[in-house]
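ZP: hey, is the NAP complex queued? I don't see it on the tracker
AM: it wasn't, my bad. submitting now with these inputs:
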Amino acid sequence: MTDIIIIGAGPAGLTAAIYARRAAKSVLVLEAKSYGGQIINTPDIENYPVAAHISGFDFATKVYEQAKALGAVFKFEKAVGLRDNGDTKTVITAKNEYEAKAVIIATGSENRKLGVEGEDKLVGRGISYCATCDGAFFRKKDVAVVGGGNTAIEDALYLADVADKVYLVHRRDAFRGEEAGVAKLRERDNVEFVLNSVVTKLNADRRLQSVEVTDRQGNVRVLEVSGLFVAVGRVPENQNFASLIELDSAGYAVAAEDCLTGTAGVFVAGDNRRKEVHQLVTATADGAVAATEAVKYLNA
Ligand code: NAP
């Protein structure tokens, strides 16, 4: 029996593992994909204290290695369910069942789809959700990014160094992401903002050929791009645990800053928790809080 199972090895889960191990609790981290969560796709983190610049991959690798060196055990299995047995909890994965005295759900979020016809079929054939992963395929080509948050801004900046031309399509004229990034984009002469516009059609044969966008007045424009990078936000990954934690209408876990859920011994941390500011620094903060609360629960 493990003291604390942490579901998710993103910044929140990894930080929780560090805090729980430093409190001498046994820790099993279950991760469906690879360690790091969404931050691994961020080319350059500029707003986390200590380093003016660090790549998401380097950041995640350092925290992962720190947690491993402290004795956290990692298994790369997707948690598909959670059972409350009272004093113990059972985490169900596709392969196994694991028991723990406390569980921290730090599953983060996944890419939101644009919802335009043909999107799924064109993934890997022009449509991507990760500029750092796929940007190199569009060297010297024209691409579009859709979204107005920090991810879209960072993706557009990254692609401006790789592609010939980058259109940034956003449904409003004000950006949700940081002004510092928007200002950098304005300085690039190969970046064009296409504002108050939404993607209404994907033109493709086997691969994406162009993207149709429509503005608020109903004017249609065709962007001749071979790549479309979708960065329209994230959807929290809580559904597999919905029987034990309260979710709001958008699917976020309802828990206050103490990361406690309605089920004793079950905690939530990171981007899957409902909160005002979803940032790297608040994800790691959640990890520290959730682990501290879990330790308190175990020692009570
Ligand atoms: P986000 O901040 O939720 O932004 C999503 C953007 O997509 C918004 O501009 C939204 O428009 C737009 N959008 C949503 N649905 C759409 C649709 N169906 N069609 C067209 N546009 C749509 O998401 P994010 O950029 O992925 O960022 C997620 C969180 O991670 C944020 O808190 C962000 O600050 C954080 N993040 C931080 C860093 C960093 O600190 N370095 C880097 C990346 C992300 P509206 O604005 O009109 O709603």
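AM: back. The domain at 2-110+234-299 is CATH 3.50.50.60 (FAD/NAD(P)-binding domain).
ZP: great, adding it to the tracker
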